[in-house]
């Protein structure tokens, strides 16, 4: 075998660029976070300006911290570590640069469109369709650049960090594309192809796994590279890496429905969501163990080294958040915590603690190495750690107390459980005001810490000479015996047994009588056989896995299968079965043109950020908001608006509850009606005219998506909308309020008054399951 | 916590290969960790069997309907649901009921009917409750029915299910305290 010694210079310029972007967008995202948190407590901070209201800024905050802050941090970490783990320069400087500038352009586009109210109305998926396409394209650029680099590697075997990067790239592409499937109605607006319960399921399959595969797996990969580097200790256990990687990526995907517990989502999906979330606990803690136990023998370094402080605390917060997640997935716990600040606290334990602290550790570790100069101030970095830690603890503790308090108040009943103890929603909101203030303080402290990092960054790199790492490698031709091939990938015990086990278990869970029993028997046989083989041929399995690590493509394909399984088994039956034609009990009445225009205003203003439209199958929900929501009652909703947080009350049965004039005064200034409300005022809805011109295109798309709109000309649509608007305006005048029928608030009122209207469906004799 | 011998790190076997200087131990999986994984898997099997295969556990909707039936039964048996006009008038002259009614009114009704009960005549949305115009009947039991069941067409919510029979009757007593029983 001929060996040739070459010197490789890494592309560290791109790492420096992503690192700088991380610092800047991190500060922006956190600042917007502090602003929206303040708005919740002081409604005047909405300034009565459309582009500064909570409903539009909150999506900006979430998108900025997820995609801009953690995104850039992930790219920096992935590009730095991958080059060194495969002993090769990034495959293409052009693709690297395209990736960087494309991503920054997307962020700027998001920062402009979101405050302007251009939104798809789905959480963490708000960006409009042209930006969606750009994100998908840039992600493909990242993928090509990454896999091409793997293909050119001078290190035959894949290290565990790379497994996590592979899983990240594949899964995010899959989730993002499916959840963003839409049909455009104009250049800036589209409707998602899924509606109602299907949209809910797809959204949280995406939403939950955006947390898993955007905020968790890439950071675990980063942990596996930078933690042992910083601690100068070996990783605790390779075996644990293998088991927790595969169990994590397989199980995570199934857990999405835990965001929809006690809702109209079919029970089998809710139960999958809950039980798989519980099973996810150990695999998540596997990552934490491997991180923390890598520090064995290096704990003393924590006293002085800010990098290890950040890493150790970050991994601890990861462990905390991944214990809390399964806990909150238990349906009875969820009945209390869902829609409250507890969830906000849970998320921020993960984002501020895990993502933010891992990012800080990464930056402090990389700065001296990328600019060949010691960190400007270690003391300042240590101060950042302590201020940030106090900030997180204040934030999370405030949200725990707030969420549990409000949850208990909302669910409390009096008079032998027959009536609500706090029928006025505002009583429960105003009880948690001090805690909302404490959150602002905690978040601000965290931001101050980040500003310290930015200052430290600037002082370190100012005038410093950037350096790119180099390495001398012997270029080896891969030997043919390492090649796994088709049979080597598929026809072996671990893969086949896993496939059989998943298949049989699924038959047992979802099959009818005989199929189910056959599935059970098959699953038991597979388990016994697997257990026996593991002991008799465990060594062969190990050898096979070592060989798999030499084969990047088969590894990636197996990873894809593992992450695709859960989604396929949950989504395909739901898309096939949960259709309007199969609905029992109640069916939604489609919106009139004016109501549809009103709904689009509801989406534009981001009302779903604070109001749910889902009355759960729980007594306190039914007592407070009316009969529980049926699956059929939102079946035509593209996008669904079930919501995930109740800063205000549920609106599923808002229609007819109050007169039109109530809504008019309430929109003008909620405090006209609801003393103590923290909802923003919406004066522009009373000043701006409804855009009816787009309605024909929108209704055409809705019809394409299966909403039963009859064929009508553009003129008929305008006439119908104008007629309904005039009737509402006239009714308002009789009640002593004048508003022109063209105003947006009229369309919004028509939509709000429609909420909860459905028609009964005659029970079918032979209803299929 | 674990059964494995507590060996010191340097004695552990390291894997042969290192990546960019990163080495790996191959420590066995902690028993408590494995136990947690197995326990949650067993829970999944049991839970699924209990609810989805054997149908021993009731569905959410069945549980909810049982609870709601119990609540309805308790309400039907409640004497506050069997009030007549004479009793309500008597209550309206009793400070205990009127004071309790006032406090409920202040939190629940003032947004539309205003502190003064004058409603539309003072910029509110709801009817004026101090004049002698009764849109939905002037008897105390008519009033009770309006508060209890609501008048959805006019935007009056049904308060009975939310605040309960006791508070509803107290509130009616409070409103009646602004009126005189017709002779």
Considering the chains and any ligands shown, give keywords for the structure.
heterodimer, A: 769 residues, mainly alpha, Cytochrome Bc1 Complex, Chain D, domain 2, 3 domains, two-stranded antiparallel ribbon, 64% helix, globular, B: mainly alpha, 2 domains, 0% strand
Structure in words:
In chain A, a hairpin with a 5-residue loop joins strand 2 and strand 3. Chain A is globular and about 90 Å long. Chain A is built from 27 helices and 8 strands. Chain A is mainly α. In chain A, helix 6 runs antiparallel to helix 20 (552-577), helix 14 (378-411) runs antiparallel to helix 16 and helix 26 (714-734) packs across helix 27 (744-754). Chain B has 183 residues and is an all-alpha fold. Chain B folds into 2 domains: 9-53; 79-176, Cytochrome c-like domain (Cytochrome Bc1 Complex, Chain D, domain 2), CATH 1.10.760. The longest helix of chain B has 23 residues, at 31-53. Chain B starts with 30 loop residues before the first helix and ends in a 7-residue tail after the last helix.
What strand order characterises the main sheet of chain A?
Answer: 1-6
Oligomer: heterodimer
Can you tell me the residue ranges of chain B where pLDDT is under 50 for at least 5 consecutive residues?
none
Q: How large is the radius of gyration of chain B?
A: 32 Å
The CATH architecture of the largest domain in chain A: Up-down Bundle
Tell me the major beta sheet of chain A. Answer: 2 strands, antiparallel
Could you report the average pLDDT of chain B, rounded to the nearest whole number? 86
Could you say what the CATH topology of the largest domain in chain A is called? Answer: Cytochrome C Oxidase, Chain A
Beta-sheet strand percentage of chain A? under 5%
Which CATH class of the largest domain in chain A applies here?
A: Mainly Alpha
